[in-house]
Amino acid sequence: MTDPDAETTGEMIEAMEATAASLVRARDMLARRVIGQEKVVDLTLNALLCGGHALLVGAPGLAKTRLVEALGTVMGLHANRVQFTPDLMPSDILGAEVLETGADGSRTFKFIEGPVFCQLLMADEINRASPRTQSALLQAMQEKRVTIAGAERVLDKPFHVLATQNPIEQEGTYPLPEAQLDRFLLQIDVGYPDRAAERDILLATTGTEDAVAEQVFDAAGLLTAQALIRRMPVGEQVVDRILDLVRAARPGTDDTSALVKDEIAWGPGPRAAQALMLTVRARALMDGRLAPSVDDVAALAHPILVHRMALTFAARAAGRTLDDVIAALVSETLQTDIAA
Questions:
Q1: Which part of the chain is the ATPase AAA-3 domain (predicted)?
Q2: Which among 122-131, 162-171, 273-282 has the top mean pLDDT?
Q3: For 153-178, what is the mean pLDDT?
C-alpha cells in the first residue's frame, strides 16, 4: 500500500526540480540580452515568480527597458510599455469607450483597451505621472482589475507591473505615495556595471548582430510556478526571523529595535513580511533548493524594506541612510543564525 502523502511530496519535489531547471535556462537567455546585471535579473525574476510587481530605480541607460522586453520574450508574456509624462491621463493607460457609427447609421459605444490590458506592463518613469494617473494604475496593481465608465474589467493573468524611476532628475516629478510604494513587492536598485561587464556590453551591442533571447516559459507555466512557490515549506526559524526583522524595523511597537527608534519615521507593515515569505521561497527555488534559509531573508531584506521605510528629519540631517539602517537591522536580528 502506497502513502499518498509520500506520492504528493515526491511529485512536488519533481515539479520543483523541473521548474528550477527552466529558471536556469531563463536566466541564461536573459543574460544574453542584459549583460552585467545578474542581481537585477534575479530580483526581477523573483518578483514574477511571486506574482508581484517591481520598482526598478536607476539612472538612464542601464538596460531597464531592455530587461523588460527580454522578460516578455523569455517568459512568453504579452508585454506593453507606457512612457509616463505629466499630461498622461488615466484613459491613456486604462482605455476608453468611443462612439462608433455602424454602416446602418446606428451608434454604439465600443471599449478600446488601453496598454494595461497585457500580462507585463512597463511603466517607464512612473513618478512623472500625475497622482490621478498613478491612482488608476494602483487599482490595477492591487486588484488586477480596473473600473471604466462604471464597469469593472478583469485584467489578464498573470499581470505584472515593472516600473522604472530615475533617482537623479526629480524636477517635474510626483513622488509615489506610500500606499503605492507598498504595492511593489521589491525595489530593485540598478547600478552601473563594473569595467569587465561594460567591456562585454560594448562588444555585444555595437556589432552587426545582437543576441536574441528565446522563449522558455509561457503564461500557464508561470502561473504553475507561482502556485508551486506558495506550496514550498518554510521552516519555523525562517518565519520567526522574518517577523523579528520586520517588527524591529517598525517604530512605536514593543519589538522596535533601538537602532530605529529615533531614525525611522514610518516602517514596514504586514505586506513586508508577506513579501519576504514569498521571495525567500522564490530565491531558494532559483538556486535549486527545496526550502529557504535565513540567508535568503538577509539577502532580500534591502529590496523588500527600502521602499517601505522613511528616515526622520534628524536622521537625514545626521547623514544616515536607509541602507545603513537596514544593514544594521539585518546584523542585529539575523547575524547569529547566518553565522551558525
A1: 53-186
A2: 273-282
A3: 80
Owner of C-alpha cell 508585454? 79
Write out the three cell numbers for 92.
Answer: 491613456
Q: Determine how many CB atoms are found less than 10 A away from the CB of residue 80.
A: 17
Q: How many Å apart are CA 233 and CA 304, to the nearest integer? A: 20
> Which sequence spans correspond to the domains of the chain?
233-340
- For domain 233-340, give the CATH number: 1.10.8.80
- DSSP 8-state class, residue 293: -
Q: Which amino acid is at 170?
A: Q
Q: Which residues contact 76 (CB under 8 A, 6 or more apart)?
A: 215, 216, 217, 218, 219, 221, 222
DSSP label at 104? T
pLDDT in the model for residue 277 = 96
Query: Tens of pLDDT along 8-52?
Result: 778 888 888 999 999 999 999 998 888 888 899 999 999 999 999
The rounded distance, in Å, linking the Cα atoms of 281 and 264 is: 28
215 is written with which cell numbers? Answer: 522563449
Amino acid letter for position 253: T
Contacts of 151 (CB under 8 A, 6+ apart): none
Q: Which residues contact 202 (CB under 8 A, 6 or more apart)?
A: none
Strand partners, 327: none
